Amino acid sequence: MTKLKKKLLKKAFIAGFFSTLTIGILAILTYKSPFGLFIAASFGSSMVLLFGFPESPFAQPKNVFFGHLVSASVGVFFVNLIPLPIYISIAFAVGIGIFLMILLDVVHPPAGGNPILVIIGSVSYDYLIFPVITGCIIIILLAIFINKLILKKKYPLK
Q: Where are the alpha helices (DSSP H) in the chain?
Protein backbone atom coordinates (compact mmCIF):
# COMPACT_ATOMS: atom_id res chain seq x y z
CA MET A 1 0.00 0.00 0.00
CA THR A 2 1.36 3.39 -0.98
CA LYS A 3 1.90 6.19 1.49
CA LEU A 4 -0.90 8.20 -0.13
CA LYS A 5 -3.37 5.31 0.19
CA LYS A 6 -2.41 4.79 3.83
CA LYS A 7 -2.98 8.48 4.52
CA LEU A 8 -6.36 8.35 2.77
CA LEU A 9 -7.35 5.20 4.66
CA LYS A 10 -6.41 6.84 7.98
CA LYS A 11 -8.38 10.01 7.13
CA ALA A 12 -11.41 7.96 6.11
CA PHE A 13 -11.24 5.82 9.25
CA ILE A 14 -10.92 8.84 11.54
CA ALA A 15 -13.83 10.64 9.82
CA GLY A 16 -16.01 7.54 9.94
CA PHE A 17 -15.16 6.71 13.54
CA PHE A 18 -15.74 10.19 14.97
CA SER A 19 -18.87 10.69 12.84
CA THR A 20 -20.25 7.45 14.27
CA LEU A 21 -19.41 8.60 17.78
CA THR A 22 -20.98 12.04 17.35
CA ILE A 23 -24.17 10.86 15.65
CA GLY A 24 -24.36 8.04 18.19
CA ILE A 25 -24.35 10.53 21.04
CA LEU A 26 -27.10 12.57 19.38
CA ALA A 27 -29.13 9.39 18.71
CA ILE A 28 -28.79 8.22 22.32
CA LEU A 29 -29.86 11.65 23.59
CA THR A 30 -32.83 11.55 21.21
CA TYR A 31 -34.03 7.99 21.77
CA LYS A 32 -32.81 7.02 25.23
CA SER A 33 -33.24 10.21 27.22
CA PRO A 34 -36.25 12.30 28.19
CA PHE A 35 -34.62 15.48 26.92
CA GLY A 36 -36.07 15.65 23.42
CA LEU A 37 -34.92 15.67 19.83
CA PHE A 38 -31.21 16.22 19.20
CA ILE A 39 -30.71 14.78 15.73
CA ALA A 40 -31.54 16.01 12.24
CA ALA A 41 -30.83 14.22 8.97
CA SER A 42 -28.64 17.06 7.74
CA PHE A 43 -26.29 16.52 10.69
CA GLY A 44 -25.06 13.35 8.96
CA SER A 45 -23.80 15.46 6.09
CA SER A 46 -22.21 17.88 8.54
CA MET A 47 -20.05 15.02 9.80
CA VAL A 48 -18.35 14.77 6.41
CA LEU A 49 -17.07 18.31 6.79
CA LEU A 50 -16.40 18.37 10.53
CA PHE A 51 -14.37 15.18 10.64
CA GLY A 52 -13.30 14.66 7.03
CA PHE A 53 -12.46 18.23 6.08
CA PRO A 54 -12.30 20.34 9.26
CA GLU A 55 -10.01 22.83 7.54
CA SER A 56 -12.83 23.80 5.16
CA PRO A 57 -14.43 27.20 5.73
CA PHE A 58 -17.77 25.37 5.52
CA ALA A 59 -16.82 23.25 8.56
CA GLN A 60 -16.11 26.15 10.90
CA PRO A 61 -18.35 26.48 13.98
CA LYS A 62 -19.94 29.76 12.89
CA ASN A 63 -20.95 28.24 9.57
CA VAL A 64 -22.22 25.01 11.09
CA PHE A 65 -24.34 26.73 13.73
CA PHE A 66 -25.71 29.65 11.75
CA GLY A 67 -25.95 27.75 8.47
CA HIS A 68 -28.25 25.19 10.09
CA LEU A 69 -30.15 27.84 12.07
CA VAL A 70 -30.73 30.16 9.10
CA SER A 71 -31.84 27.47 6.67
CA ALA A 72 -34.05 25.66 9.21
CA SER A 73 -35.59 29.01 10.20
CA VAL A 74 -36.52 29.66 6.59
CA GLY A 75 -38.19 26.26 6.43
CA VAL A 76 -40.10 26.89 9.67
CA PHE A 77 -41.13 30.32 8.39
CA PHE A 78 -42.58 28.77 5.23
CA VAL A 79 -44.34 25.95 7.10
CA ASN A 80 -46.00 28.28 9.57
CA LEU A 81 -46.53 31.54 7.72
CA ILE A 82 -46.51 31.06 3.94
CA PRO A 83 -49.59 29.20 2.65
CA LEU A 84 -48.22 27.81 -0.61
CA PRO A 85 -48.36 24.30 -2.06
CA ILE A 86 -45.60 22.14 -0.59
CA TYR A 87 -43.69 21.81 -3.88
CA ILE A 88 -43.50 25.59 -4.23
CA SER A 89 -42.63 26.15 -0.56
CA ILE A 90 -39.78 23.65 -0.71
CA ALA A 91 -38.28 25.24 -3.80
CA PHE A 92 -38.49 28.80 -2.48
CA ALA A 93 -37.32 27.88 1.01
CA VAL A 94 -34.21 26.10 -0.26
CA GLY A 95 -33.36 28.99 -2.55
CA ILE A 96 -33.92 31.61 0.14
CA GLY A 97 -31.98 29.56 2.70
CA ILE A 98 -29.00 29.33 0.37
CA PHE A 99 -29.29 33.02 -0.50
CA LEU A 100 -29.24 33.97 3.19
CA MET A 101 -26.35 31.65 4.08
CA ILE A 102 -24.23 33.19 1.32
CA LEU A 103 -25.34 36.75 2.12
CA LEU A 104 -24.59 36.29 5.85
CA ASP A 105 -21.32 34.45 5.18
CA VAL A 106 -22.42 31.33 7.09
CA VAL A 107 -22.43 28.78 4.28
CA HIS A 108 -22.66 25.19 5.46
CA PRO A 109 -23.69 23.02 2.48
CA PRO A 110 -25.40 20.27 4.52
CA ALA A 111 -27.77 22.92 5.88
CA GLY A 112 -29.13 23.48 2.39
CA GLY A 113 -31.35 20.45 2.91
CA ASN A 114 -32.91 21.70 6.13
CA PRO A 115 -35.86 23.52 4.54
CA ILE A 116 -36.85 20.34 2.72
CA LEU A 117 -36.85 18.30 5.93
CA VAL A 118 -38.62 21.03 7.88
CA ILE A 119 -41.37 21.52 5.31
CA ILE A 120 -41.96 17.81 4.66
CA GLY A 121 -42.06 17.23 8.42
CA SER A 122 -44.28 20.28 8.94
CA VAL A 123 -42.39 21.14 12.11
CA SER A 124 -43.10 23.87 14.63
CA TYR A 125 -40.85 26.64 15.92
CA ASP A 126 -39.64 24.26 18.64
CA TYR A 127 -37.62 22.46 15.97
CA LEU A 128 -35.22 25.40 15.97
CA ILE A 129 -34.33 24.70 19.60
CA PHE A 130 -34.55 20.89 19.49
CA PRO A 131 -32.72 19.66 17.42
CA VAL A 132 -31.19 22.56 15.50
CA ILE A 133 -29.65 24.74 18.22
CA THR A 134 -29.00 22.02 20.80
CA GLY A 135 -27.77 19.51 18.22
CA CYS A 136 -25.44 22.05 16.61
CA ILE A 137 -23.97 23.02 19.97
CA ILE A 138 -23.23 19.39 20.77
CA ILE A 139 -21.78 18.75 17.30
CA ILE A 140 -19.57 21.84 17.47
CA LEU A 141 -18.31 21.10 20.98
CA LEU A 142 -17.47 17.52 20.02
CA ALA A 143 -15.78 18.68 16.80
CA ILE A 144 -13.62 21.16 18.70
CA PHE A 145 -12.74 18.60 21.38
CA ILE A 146 -11.98 15.82 18.90
CA ASN A 147 -10.19 17.87 16.23
CA LYS A 148 -8.21 20.12 18.55
CA LEU A 149 -7.46 17.97 21.56
CA ILE A 150 -7.48 14.40 20.25
CA LEU A 151 -6.41 14.78 16.60
CA LYS A 152 -4.21 17.86 17.26
CA LYS A 153 -5.64 19.76 14.28
CA LYS A 154 -6.02 23.51 14.10
CA TYR A 155 -9.76 23.72 14.60
CA PRO A 156 -11.51 26.03 14.51
CA LEU A 157 -9.43 28.05 12.09
CA LYS A 158 -10.55 31.43 13.44
A: 3-31, 41-47, 61-81, 86-103, 114-121, 134-144
Cβ atoms of 56 and 156 within 8 Å: the answer is no
- The model's pTM is 0.96
Report percent pLDDT > 90 for the chain.
Answer: 99
From CA 115, how far away is CA 93, in angstroms rounded?
A: 6
Q: Which residues contact 139 (CB under 8 A, 6 or more apart)?
A: 22, 26, 43, 46, 50, 64
CB of 131 closer than 8 Å to CB of 138: no
Decide if pLDDT at 158 tops 80.
Answer: no
* DSSP code, position 102: H
- Identify whether the C-beta of residue 127 lies closer than 8 Å to the C-beta of residue 118: yes
pLDDT digits (tens, 9 = 90+) for 2-61: 999 999 999 999 999 999 999 999 999 999 999 999 999 999 999 999 999 999 999 999
Asked if 49 and 108 touch (Cβ cutoff 8 Å), the reply is yes
Whole-Å CA distances, 30 to 91, 109, 134: 29, 24, 11
Q: Which residues of 62-84 are buried (b: 16+ CB within 10 A; e: fewer)?
A: ebbbbbbbbbbbbbbbbbeeeee
